[in-house]
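Why do we care about 3D structure at all? Because function follows from shape, and shape follows, mostly, from sequence. That is the central idea of this module. The next example makes it concrete: a single protein chain, its amino acid sequence, and then its structure expressed as tokens.
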Amino acid sequence: GNEVLPTTVASYLYNNTVEFNRGTEGTTGNGILVASRQWGLTPTVINSSAALTSALKEGHHVVAAVQQDKFSPWGYGTSHEIVLKGYSNGNTYVSDPYNSANNGWYPIVSLWNEQSTQSVDTRGLGNPFVKITDI
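And the structure:
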């Protein structure tokens, strides 16, 4: 496949949509859907902890907006996107694009319970966890 850099995605969203750094810091939940489709990927909103576990067991990447945890330490009203991949004994591997020191295995149930409730993350999605596939 083609390499798509984060800066390329940010530039596209900023210049062609209102989903990145327009009225809020960072990318909206809807921006995840828009960007995925722009590069030919299929985003699917995950609506339960069981569906999250299933997607991770199947080997898919999941982008997750979380809040009030170690990944989003900026206080109430803030959230942060992390990437989940893999499954092992109820845990998934988290990649934190902001702080790689946070990368590692975490309980899926805890991450699901820490999902963002910020409207910027949930508007149009319901839940701010999105499975990304290339089909």
